[in-house]
């Protein structure tokens, strides 16, 4: 089940980038893949945050990383 949200996100990113009404395998190949789609969305969301919110995000991620939570 872990991979389904990532796949869904990558497909949505590909669909939004597409100019036609049909999503093709060629459209999927043009994209950078699941990791890049999620990474780009995360960067966009992070850039939209205020400095204080960015600090909260960094603290939350660091605390999960140090606790060993996946």
Shape: elongated
Order of helices and strands: HHHH
| Low-confidence runs of at least 5 consecutive residues | none
Gyration radius from CA atoms, angstroms: 15 Å
Percentage of residues in helical conformation: over 70%
**How many strands, what sense, and barrel or not for the largest sheet?**
none
By secondary-structure content and strand pairing, the structural class works out as mainly alpha
What is the arithmetic mean of pLDDT?
78
Distance between the termini: 14 Å
Overall number of domains: 1
Instruction: Output the number of helix runs.
Output: 4
What fraction strand? under 5%
Quick structural overview:
74% of the residues lie in helices and 0% in strands. By secondary structure, the chain is mainly alpha-helical.
Protein architecture, described:
The protein is 74% helix and 0% strand. The protein is mostly helical and 70 residues long. The relative contact order is 0.10. The protein contains 4 helices and no strands. The protein has one domain (3-67). The model has no long low-confidence stretch (mean pLDDT 78). The protein has helices spanning 3-17, 25-30, 34-47, 51-67. Helix 1 (3-17) crosses helix 3 (34-47). The protein is elongated.
Topology:
Elements: H1 3-17, H2 25-30, H3 34-47, H4 51-67
Helix pairs in contact: 1-3
